[in-house]
Amino acid sequence: MIHLDILQVPDCPNVPLLEQRIEQALADTPMEWELRHLVIEDPQSAETVGMTGSPTLLIDGRDPFAEPDQAPSVSCRLYRDDAGAIGGAPTVSALRKAFGMDSPTPDERAEVDSIDRIVDCCSADPAPVADLGASRGRATPTGPAETAVHQAILRTFAEDGASPTIEDLEPIAQQFDSSATAILQRLHDADVIRTNTSGQVQSAYPFSASPTAHRVHLPSGIEVYAMCAIDALGISSMLGVDTTITTSDAGDQTLIAVTVRGIHSHAQPTTTVVYVGAEAAQGPSADICCSHLNFFNDRDAAEAWAEAHPNVSGIVLGLDEATELGAAIFGPLLN
Q: How far is 58 from 61, CA to CA, in rounded Å?
């Protein structure tokens, strides 16, 4: 008998997804198992039971997905699969490995876990945080040529405060017997970057070549624009430097300043929160998510904005949770 415990905060939106994947992983097996839920409401209880974010799965009392230096937490927990995609629960193949079973064949894994690359960022799903993490996590280069060009784009933004031209990227593309135009098109099609009608780079998450509400100051003196609030918060972890964000409340436009050091951040006002939302539609993150991922002075302001925009579904995150989400999405991009 396998004893499974799901450690969760009240009404965690990712628990149904985890339950579904557990059932899929254990389907058609002779294993006997039982599942319990333990609802945790404060950091002290999370530390006592070993919950490092919601949901945490214990198999016979052990967390098979524990990571080094992962602290007890009641915030949203994100899981990264073998391909680097981020989601709100382990994949079916990861669960099968944790249960000591043979992993699915590649065809089976694709059938179970695949999702369109141009995705529903936060469609009608009740878990916008997991959807954002999954969509941005999946939007990663698929080969060495794409990875090299993508990282060159990110580094150019960080070093120059602007996007590289097609000509700037041509020498890198030629190393892979390709052209910059062809590689940029593949990155655009995969929603890793967005290009304009001339094929030039318009944005590369987390950076925008055009001014946005979120201006990020780097120690070098360079200033860059971020696509959205989560992107702005993730730049520190991606570049390994401290950053300062100048932004504003998306409702009343009052100034907000945020300092970020990796997964830690402080804001003025101290009550600052982030609203993570999107319209119920399919398409690139830049089109359906970015304008709805914003800073607010406090939770009341964010909830008032959400009430005034019923076409946008989402959730209010504390600054710590939002910073951790940004770090999880963007931290690995230059590794």
A: 5
Residue ranges of E strands in 159-287: 193-195, 201-204, 207-208, 214-217, 223-226, 243-248, 255-261, 264-268, 273-279
Burial grade of 296 (CB within 10 A; 0-12, 13-18, 19 or more): buried
In tens, the pLDDT along 199-214 reads 999 999 999 999 999 9
As a whole number, mean pLDDT of residues 53-77 equals 87
Burial class from Cβ neighbours inside 10 Å (0-12, 13-18, 19+) for residue 153 reads buried
CB neighbour list of residue 9: distance below 8 Å, 6 or more residues apart? 39, 40, 41, 54, 74
CA dihedral 83, 84, 90, 95 (to 10 degrees): 30
- Lowest-confidence range among 70-84, 90-104, 313-327? 70-84
22, 28, 31, 34: CA torsion to nearest 10:
40
The percent helix, strand, coil of the chain (3-state, each to 5) is 35, 25, 40
Span 5-50, pLDDT tens digits: 999 988 777 788 899 899 999 988 888 999 999 999 888 898 999 9
- pLDDT tens-digit profile of 289-310? 566 899 999 999 999 999 998 8
Q: Distance between CA atoms of 281 and 275, rounded to whole angstroms?
A: 18
Q: What are the chain's domains?
A: 2-114 (3.40.30), 144-204 (1.10.10), 208-330 (3.30.450.410)
Beta strand 264-268 with 214-217 is unpaired
Q: What percent of the chain has pLDDT over 70?
A: 83
For residue 242, what are its two tokens? 């401290």
> What are the start-end ranges of the H helices in 51-101?
92-98
Alpha carbon distance 93, 109 (integer Å)? 7
pTM above 0.85, yes or no: no
CA angle 312, 262, 143 (to 5 degrees): 75
